[in-house]
Amino acid sequence: MEIENFRQVVQEIEEEIGRVMVGQQDIIRHTLICLLAGGNALLEGVPGLGKTMLVRTISRVLDLKFSRIQFTPDLMPADIVGTNIIAEDETGKKQFRFQPGPVFANIILADEINRATPKTQSAMLEAMQERTVTAGGETRELSRPFFVLATQNPLEMEGTYPLPEAQMDRFLFKLLVKFPAENELARIIELTTGSQLPEVRRVAGAETILDMSRLALEVPVAERVMNLAVRVVLATHPDSEYAPEQVKKFVRYGASPRGGQALIAASKVRALMEGRYNVAFEDIEELAYPALRHRFFLNFEGEAEGLTTDDLITEVLSSLRTVDN
To answer: What is the reported pLDDT for 1?
Structure first.
């Protein structure tokens, strides 16, 4: 019954988001998986593909507090986390009062995160990792659920500060937003140039999302499935016995243990979405791409060949299937 309720709520959420978002079903589903797994997502795509609309719609459907932060080179950490200000009470007495920043929300859109300086990026990423904010010598808890969806433009790199590898690793998923197909583009234009945008209804609240996340943690993982997840991560390392030839030749260094954690946590959520109370091989294989594509890096030869990490994940999965068979 719990699994059926889980599936029903997810289906209703996807249907409501689909009323506003045309196409992008994989992005919608993977974003929900990331949210329910307690992680954060990095969206990469050119401007105008509906990334802001997606996050705003999710916040409305889930009745969660939404906040948008536009990252620019002059943005300071205090602009994100908040700062102490001097306030005057009814008696005229002045005292310091903490003014919370936009990070005190449930769903946060960190727009063009690679445009901010490393100091500001670190403040945002610390909040993502620790779920706390320290300001004025005091540590404050952030609201739960807490989900950050950061975006970056892969084309415009002038004047940007690319996220370091260690900070990229803090995102559970990296999702690639593709340009819509012809019929989808026509539908988008039709929807957005009309007199009214479709209205969405509230499907779930914060408590429901937290309950669904707790249920996902209880999903069991069989030993063989766990072994596959471990081997997929190890196979991204060029010095591993499981690494295929292309990885040994074109990878500089492989995914961290966080890659395995992300893969299992997300697979548990996907299993429940598919109506199963156990993680299957297909969960690992599908989610290997968003969970690992940003966690290992090509060497100069790989980049010169025009390869992507997705190409190498395909090679890894293919080689592991051959070994298992």
So the answer is: 57
